[in-house]
Specification:
single chain, two-stranded antiparallel sheet, 8 strands
């Protein structure tokens, strides 16, 4: 579950509003649905568009050269489930077709990792299960091999193969192993990496106050 619910002050303000207005049950449920739809989910879209958390802090940037906006499709996966028996609604994530190798990964798991951040420990056996053993070496790997002095024997002479030849004749996993060997790096049996928190679900207090007032108008209450 993603804990992107209203904070304690916002929850109290909503509870006080519902109590003071003495809304009928159907109106209460309609108000909660509208706040979820036009308040929380709209705020999530805005947070992703601005690449920042509800409090205005910019998200940690990606490592590497990939610079496209992050979590672009995440708000599209947000849905609302009404829970009138508990005077509540639930916002959940569904879809996305996320995968880890051949294994499907629920959108909620991906969303949780992005909302809160997480540290992942991976061992070599786990990675080997997800690697396509028929995949050919990449251009990046080929360039790295050439930089490290990789050569192949042709007749009695050794030569440095061109990038096109490496990518056509060497497997991805073979290239990786050769790069480690030529660079003198020790082979790791396990390693860890961190997914930094990029909070996208939630509203700041100003956004919540505006959403509450606007949605009260939407159901015929307030000025």
């Amino acid at each position: 579950m993603i804990h992107g619910q209203l904070n304690s002050n916002q929850l109290k303000a909503l509870q006080d509003t519902l109590s003071n207005l003495e809304l009928p049950q159907k109106k209460r449920q309609r108000l909660l649905w509208r706040i979820a739809k036009y308040g929380v989910i709209q705020a999530a879209k805005r947070n992703v568009r601005n690449q920042q958390s509800p409090d205005g802090r910019s998200w940690p940037v990606r490592k590497g050269a990939w610079r496209k906006k992050m979590l672009r499709n995440m708000p599209k996966l947000l849905h609302i489930r009404e829970m009138p028996e508990t005077d509540a609604v639930r916002i959940y994530l569904q879809g996305g077709n996320y995968r880890n190798g051949k294994q499907n990964v629920p959108a909620g798991v991906v969303g949780y990792a992005q909302q809160h951040g997480m540290r992942v420990q991976v061992n070599r056996r786990q990675v080997q299960k997800t690697v396509d053993r028929e995949r050919m070496a990449t251009i990046k790997q080929a360039k790295k091999l050439r930089d490290l002095g990789y050569q192949v024997k042709k007749g009695k002479r050794w030569r440095k193969p061109p990038i096109k030849e490496i990518t056509a004749t060497m497997k991805f996993i073979q290239a990786g192993a050769m790069i480690k060997k030529l660079s003198g790096k020790a082979v790791k049996n396990s390693w860890s990496f961190e997914v930094p928190a990029r909070e996208f679900l939630g509203l700041n207090d100003e956004e919540f106050s505006k959403a509450l007032a606007r949605q009260l108008q939407g159901i015929g209450y307030g000025a």
